[in-house]
Amino acid sequence: MSKAVINGLLIGGTAVAVFPLLWMLSVSFMVPGEASSLPPPLWPSRPTLGNYHELFARAGMGRYLLNSLLVSSVITVLSLAFNLMAGYAFAKLRFAGRERVFQALLGGLVIPAQVAMLPLFLLLKYLGLVNSYAGVVAPAMATIFGIFLVRQYARGIPDDLIEAARIDGAGEWRIFVQIIMPLLTPIMVTLAIFTFLTAWNDFMWPLIVLTGQEHYTLPIALASLSREHVQDSELMMAGSVVTVLPVLVLFLALQRYYLQGLLLGSVKG
Amino acid sequence: MNTQRTAWLFLTPALLVLALFFLIPVLAAFALSLTDFDLYALADLRNLRFVALGNYWELLHRPLFWSALGHTLYFVVIGVPLSMVVSLGAAMLLNSPLARMKPLFRTALFAPVVTTVVAVAVIWRYLFNTKYGLANYSLGLIGISPVDWLGDPRWAMPTIILFAVWKNFGYNMIIFLAGLQAIPADLYEAARIDGASPWRQFRHITLPMLAPTMLMVSILTVSGYFQLFAEPFVMTEGGPLQSTVSVLYLMYEEGFKWWNLGSASAVAFLLFLIMFAVTAVMLRASRQRGEA
Q: Using alpha carbons only, what angle is made at residue B14 by residues B266 and A72, rounded to the nearest 5 degrees?
């Protein structure tokens, strides 16, 4: 009895969680106007790829997709490199002021990113980086959260291993690349997915810094499209599918790492 | 000596980025908030004037600031507890020994979290469309007349809250799930032998054991919900009748629509102070309860 209730509730909850996503997919294949009929149709009567064709051929969706891929990938690679190096240094290298610098960084976690946005815009404007990919990438090249995550993980690496390599005459850079990085692979994967998803889904900063259409990322393009095409539900749903599908697939493929990172980042204070 | 230098070489790129693109801008935001930086100053810095706390003083006299703060608090005060209850409920269902196919349910319930706000907001706008939306159609079937979800000032914020809870509950669900799994099973065993009802088990075992997780989740959620922006931007553009203008929405319009960067910085700083105060109060309250 309680078994039926629990599983029933789970099925119900899952239906509510997933239904909007499935319907988005379904409506994206409908012919223009079909979604605006009553009762709201669940399935396309004559499935068509017309909306996708329209998006890519005329609305420039291909360009935005590439922009998003480019920006998110560059952010992921750069911030991964910088956060790994810094996290490793905080965990395993001894230097004066280590604890103090790290505490100061953690203190920065309480400051919402939006506080920095207005001066950041001015800074990038004077650097000539407004409305460029670099303007989106620059502030995301390192994160306190990423450094923290790497540090927590790297503390588990035995000091002897690094010591032994030093005695054998390996340089610090070589130790980092050949010994440390392979040991950090799990946290690298986790952090990479996290960073990529965050960069892909980011809305406010790209909205501020990207003023010209040619540099738009998908969320910005979709928001501006949806203001022009308020009535074209089918077209907008196709746009949403293009925006959501890549991250959803990435998450489904690598969810083990993603969920792990979520717990590492939040439970471990 | 050698490791000292190596360490700083390893730290420099990240610290440089954080200093240049975060720390200095945050400090500059405070300085900026004390000036009348506007379109004229943007064109020529010589037009910049120091106004001390003038921006703050003006904001406190602007009805729009108070209503934006009110909407944000509405979103936090209703949205956070609702989101926590849904997250905890889902986590408890998933944690039940009777639940089947847990990985499948877990993944599906989590899916909305990884989606892009703008894209799923577009879907919700369609589902809650007054004329063609499924929400009103379903209500119509049970005889309830259509609600103008996003067009009625009374309903726009509740609709956005529902959307936010749907979008975000999976995140906290995973954290709660880990917290629940850490509770020793013998505690429940002992309670069952003593004849405690499920409700008493929940109140006297689950809730106290989850308290630290609960505190952390609520602080994270509160600070996340204070940063409401994309949802009203995409779903309602702050309307109808500015009923969904949040503090960040106000900051965005003030700064990047009207180019009053000084006044917008003051908005950002006030939001920061409020978030900081609320978090501090939550921490203190939980500590006192812990000692009692």
A: 80
Please determine, for residue A268, whether its predicted confidence score (pLDDT) is greater than 70: no
Domain B26-116+155-291 homologous superfamily, CATH: MetI-like (1.10.3720.10)
pTM above 0.90, yes or no: yes
Do the beta carbons of residue A111 and residue B26 sit within 8 Å?
yes
pLDDT of residue A262: 82
Chain A: residue nearest B168 by CA? A17
Q: How many CB atoms lie within 10 A of CB A136?
A: 28
* CA end-to-end span of chain A: 40
| Residue A25, pLDDT score | 94
**A219 within 8 A of A203, measured Cβ to Cβ:** yes
Tokens representing A266 are 């939040």
B119 touches chain A (CB under 8 A): yes
Taking the CA of residue A223 and the nearest CA in chain B, the distance in Å comes to 6
The DSSP call for residue A110 is T
Is A137 within 8 Å of A75 (Cβ atoms)? yes
Stretch A174-183: mean pLDDT, rounded?
A: 93
Give the closest residue to A25 by CA, choosing from B277, B120, B241, B10.
B120
Torsion of CA A229, A230, A234, A235, to 10 degrees: 20
The domain segmentation of chain B, as residue ranges, is 26-116+155-291
Alpha-helical regions (H) of chain A: 2-27, 50-57, 61-92, 98-108, 114-126, 133-137, 144-154, 159-167, 172-174, 181-183, 185-201, 204-209, 218-228, 233-266
What pLDDT does B172 receive?
95
> Which of B6, B10, B218 is the best substitution to test chain A (most A C-beta atoms within 10 A)?
B10
pLDDT digits 0-9 by tens, A93-123: 989 999 999 999 999 988 999 999 999 999 9
Mark yes or no for CB contact A269/B166 under 8 Å.
no
Q: Is B257 in the A-facing interface, judged by CB distances under 8 Å? A: no
Q: Is the pLDDT of residue A267 over 50?
A: no
- The string of pLDDT tens digits covering residues B99-120 is 899 999 999 999 999 999 999 9
Residue B99's contacts (CB-CB under 8 Å, 6 or more residues apart) are A6, A7, A10, B93, B105
Tokens of B250: 């106000």
Q: What is the pLDDT of residue B131?
A: 83
Q: Please give the residue of chain A at the shortest CA–CA distance from B129.
A: A36
